[in-house]
Design a protein that fits this description.
Layout: H1 15-19, H2 22-31, E1 34-36, E2 42-44, H3 47-55, E3 59-60, H4 63-67, H5 80-89, H6 98-109, H7 114-118, H8 121-131, E4 137-139, H9 140-145, H10 147-157, H11 164-174, H12 184-210, H13 216-222, E5 224-225, E6 228-229, H14 232-263, H15 265-273, H16 278-288, E7 299-301, E8 305-307, E9 310-312, E10 317-320, H17 322-325, H18 360-377, E11 382-383, E12 390-391, E13 394-398, E14 402-404
Parallel strand pairs: 2-10
Antiparallel strand pairs: 1-2, 3-7, 4-14, 5-6, 7-10, 8-9, 11-14, 12-13
Length: 405
């Protein structure tokens, strides 16, 4: 077989791919939409395949069942405490299906209802305006897009001010444990961060049991549904999921969205003059620059599935290319064009089905407030960092986007 006829097999976790995933995703969508990656998982890229699989019970999120109670395996040495901490995080409600998923999600959803979040609008607006400087240069990532949703999510949860920086860093450092390829030193640092995170949250929960406050931590401690309280492990795992959904993914949406608008001066000007375009602009940002253009939270196949002429065997891991699906020409007209007036716009940025992102309403609200605050504050805003690079610590976000007023 000559080189030209060899199957396309990109490394979906390489820095070069993460810097510019769209061309690779387009080729996979065209040539190999049900792709067996170098890292052993199946990767779906076509809109219809992804949409259907997100709702298909054969593609399950219940990782506890896949392990069948056995220990988590690692290529590196781990203590029993390390394995217990990783098992705890993998027991989160977003990694469960059926009644177990709905039981915990039903409690958490109360905090993310539209009515509840609208009551937080004034606080989000005040914080956004406090973060934006009057003039000069500033970084849309470090100075605005990152701290805005992180602070909001910490306030919602009830994380004390003095601990918020370390709490946020623990999520960054522990995230490496979910990557298919990392070094032993990274693994050790990830385990250390996860251990700190779990013990810190245990302490917070004990504090809320003794002294309840007006925050989500207290609500989860006190919550009951069908006469059954959450266990400490369920609550800790839920907090991890909530913070990720409400904070870390939203900050990428805000900074990337502002970058898209600043690159398209016509869109920026139109949105400034006609704020009725804000809802469709937000949906287009979500479609065009999904926070993770490459992969999604993995699922596994609980029975053999025939898809795209291939057999996905029971036990196989599957990832859904949400960013690839959102640029499928079979679903979207001129998908590589950024169009803030696009309608309809049935993107899959927040997933579909029972695991639809619980932070979707908050993300849209924070995005609306953030974009409006920038448009209100600055008559002119220019990009200094015209071609931002990905953050080597987290390749799904930009390292910096410097602007000048």
């Amino acid at each position: 077989m000559d080189a030209a006829s060899e199957p396309f097999s990109p490394d979906l976790h390489s820095p070069s791919y993460q810097e510019d995933p769209a061309p690779v995703l387009a080729r996979l969508r065209e040539e190999d939409p049900v792709h067996r990656s170098q890292h052993g998982y199946w990767f779906l890229t076509r809109y219809e395949d992804v949409k259907n699989a997100l709702k298909d019970a054969r593609f399950t999120s219940d990782w506890a069942k896949r392990r069948s109670g056995g220990p988590i395996r690692s290529d590196f040495d781990e203590t029993e405490t390390d394995r217990a901490n990783r098992s705890l995080i993998l027991s989160s409600f977003n990694m469960r299906d059926g009644d177990e998923h709905q039981r915990v999600r039903g409690l958490v959803n109360q905090a993310f209802s539209k009515a509840t979040l609208e009551g937080s609008r004034s606080r989000i607006e005040a914080l956004a305006h406090d973060l934006l400087p009057v003039g000069g240069e500033f970084d849309l990532v470090k100075d605005f897009g990152f701290p805005l949703p992180i602070q909001i999510s910490c306030e919602m949860l009830g994380i004390p001010k003095e601990s918020r920086d370390e709490f946020r860093r623990s999520f960054e450092d522990a995230a490496v444990l979910g990557l298919p390829r990392h070094s032993e030193s990274q693994h050790r640092e990830g385990l250390r961060a996860l251990g700190w995170q779990v013990e810190y949250m245990r302490g917070l929960l004990e504090d809320r049991r003794n002294t309840p406050k007006d925050d989500l931590l207290s609500a989860l401690v006190q919550a009951e549904e069908a006469g059954s309280q959450l266990t400490s492990e369920e609550t800790i795992a839920a907090i991890v999921t909530i913070f990720t959904a409400a904070g870390t993914t939203t900050e990428r949406f805000v900074s990337s969205g502002l970058l898209l608008l600043l690159r398209d001066r016509d869109a920026f000007a139109r949105l400034r003059e006609d704020r009725s375009l804000m809802p469709s602009a937000i949906e287009e940002i979500l479609r065009f620059h999904h926070p993770d253009q490459s992969t999604s939270t993995p699922r596994w196949v609980n029975e053999d599935v025939e898809l795209g002429g291939k057999t996905l065997a029971r036990g196989d891991t599957v990832r859904f290319g949400l960013g690839a699906a959102n640029r499928d020409p079979q679903q979207f007209k001129i998908p590589e064009s950024f169009d803030i007036t696009r309608t309809p716009n049935r993107h899959l940025a927040f997933g579909k089905g029972a695991h639809f992102c619980l932070g979707a309403t908050l993300a849209r609200l924070v995005g609306e407030v953030a974009f409006t605050a920038v448009l209100d504050r600055y008559a002119e805003l220019k990009l200094v960092t015209e071609n931002p690079r990905r953050d080597p610590r987290r390749m799904d976000r930009y390292q910096e986007i410097v602007v000048r007023t």
